[in-house]
Design brief:
By secondary structure, this protein is mainly β. About 5% of the residues lie in helices and about 55% in strands. It is built from six helices and 54 strands. The strands form eleven sheets. It has a 22-stranded antiparallel beta barrel. The chain is globular and about 110 Å long.
Amino acid sequence: MTQYAKCFILVALLFFLAPACLAQPGSENTPLKKILADIANQHHVKFNFAEYDIASRSLYPPQVRWPLKAKLAYITSRTSLKFKQSGVYVTVYLPQKNDIPLKTRCAFITDENGQILENAIVTFGTTQLLTGADGYFEFPENITVLQIEQAGYQPVQYKITDTRGDCSEIRLNPDVHELQEVVAERYIATGISLNKTGGYNIKPAKFGILPGLIDADVLKAMQQLPGINSSDETVNNINVRGGTHDQNLFTWNGIRLFQTGHFFGLISALNPNIAQNIEIYKNGTPAMYGESVSSNVNITAHPETINPTSGSVGLNMISADVYAAVKLTPASAVTVTARRSFTDALSLPTYTKYSDRIFQNTVVTGLNDNSQLVYKNSKSFYFYDFTGQYHLIIKDKHQLYGDFIGIKNNLDFTQATFMPYGLAIKNSNLTQTTLGGNLMLKSKWSATQSSEISGYSSYYNVDALNQSIDVNGATLQQNVINDAGLRFIYNIKVGNHYTLQGGYSYNDTRITNRDRTSIPASETYTRQQLNTHAFSLQADYAPSDSPIFIQGGLRINYIQQLKLLYAEPRINLTYKAGESVKIQFQAESKSQTALQVVSLQEDFLGIEKRRWILANDASVPVLHSSQAALGLVFRKSGWLVSWDNFYKKVSGITTESQTFQNQFEKETTTGSYTVTGTEFLIQKQFKQFYIWFSYAYNRNNYRFDALFPSVFTNNYEQPHTVNNGITYEWKRVKIALGSKIMSGRPYTRPLVNVPVPATTNNPASIEYNYPNGVRLGTYTQINFSAGYTTPIYKKVSLHAGISVLNILNSKDIINRYYRLNASQDEIQMVDTYSLSRTPNAVIRIMF
């Protein structure tokens, strides 16, 4: 039996045996001595008491999930016994007659599932305090009303009504927009939820833990969701239901992002410290969103209230970061973040592993004599990103936000190898830069009407000098995007059943591409511009006394330069079939005018070979997608099951956008792809343990009528994907272990192992077999992560975490293609391998 099978069986056994091991004890009258023994085991303390003080006492035990101090207060209110704690020792005693009773009461904060919440802000009178890691706090006995606030939750005014002296349990509800009512809270991990329209919400402030992650990295976390993969392990190549990465729309505070990764995709370019809420839609996208044919990922860092000053300083094995949210006045605040790698000065093991993955010494195998040519390289690489935000509340009705973001990657790369004519050494350079700004005004005119108006600008630039090691030549490339837009949205609630939303958006996108080669000497320059007007209308029918929810939307687009007018209908239906089951249907039509293409497969060693262009409705059509899905969600007694079946078709794709590395690499034509599939997830909670298993199947085929054959397997098809994991979260400790298993990508073999000889009119070439007729081996990765958070001084906490990617150090091939050598007389096989075992660690101080 292989190691992979053993790990898989282990997770399955944990899934089915955990209920027996972790079953809840019955709530029955229990001797106090046993209750104290159970509490001692649960909280790792020791009780000192006189036997006669507790021998005859019994009561119903407090709930296991309560914090220690709340359990002691519970016992005191029913027995009059007092407790005094010193370290791990707790003394139990009966108060003397002259003891003065403490004039305080206590409470603790939990979420809607009863899980403890730390760092909640409690206000009473002129006093404000922060709850600790156990959610516990005390307050004067004469206080009857508490104001509770916590990031990501609805603020609450809690009235003290318990006269027995028990600790009050104060539950907070998620701060979720009314139109995004939660269907399943905690989907795979704490902080991820499934909403009524079938989309996902991720709240980094609540984020638990996922295998292999040490931070709330949304672009890594979303790859755990069924139907979302990365075929090359990066966040620069996220494939949602068979689509390419550029078919996903990423926005940060309304600013469109054309760059999503650092280190060429191994690290997210979005700082996890700042996001308040992330929405992910695979289908059923709200009508206000356009310009994508796969998914929408909307990151919003716009708090509704002015929170107290807070901040953090963090360091991991790649970079250092700072975060500060400063309350300027009761109605204004400013937030800044910054992160920079130190990889250009210090190479720790994590950087070394990442570097080997991205710039791995490419092993090229000659198919005739099995000879190998190894490239040696050296590089200097660094990245940084920063954000700024100003928030102003105007007369309690208006929220003004000003945002700014900057992202940069810089690489200097030297490569050397022995060629027939001697040692060849080449130097190359690549920089990627993103700058963006946004201004937004949100207004709440009444209890039933609100509006939002915003304007943004985004700039993206890639400059690359690629000196080929195989030929004595160089390529200079530049890709520049200037994107700007305006958006207006108005919401009206009509009665108790209907909500209407109308909107208008204008978008101006300009893209410039410049290419210059030395051998042969040539230069090309193109400049494109498209202006798009879009009107959206959406209606929600959501009566509180009905099991039916309906959301219907229509988006009408007009592309000025192309004189194209078309409509995009969208619908979401949810039917609640009893208390535990919801049936969902989603359908949508979407479009996209900006896409990425590949002109030369080996641009900059294949590291960053894609360039953005605009549709021209001729050689590059506007992309259109149609999609429908039917599924259900079952939730009961800690079990969660979700199941989706979908159909998706995207038309207008070009061969240049699909990164072909076979006989179609230099073809230029248009076509479509069609995907059908199913996505399944099952999850169970046993106290602090969470076990989940997901499976996704898809069948993905191209259709290019001008090619032969015209129908064949999509480059990004991975028919089977299995994710599973087990996490443990208890107070300050979080641990996760999980695996990901995927079918290998398809590739095309040469028909014979020798090239077709050159002729007068044609250079030497490779004769290929049936396109994408064979598949790479299965990709398997097992990951681990753990984190611990503890208060160290008043409002200061320390967080430490570790992670290990690919624990078993699997060496899987994630891409394979063939090429001719420099002499054009031999076929070489080029393999790209997966990330090897990679450790990482983080330490963060939060205040």
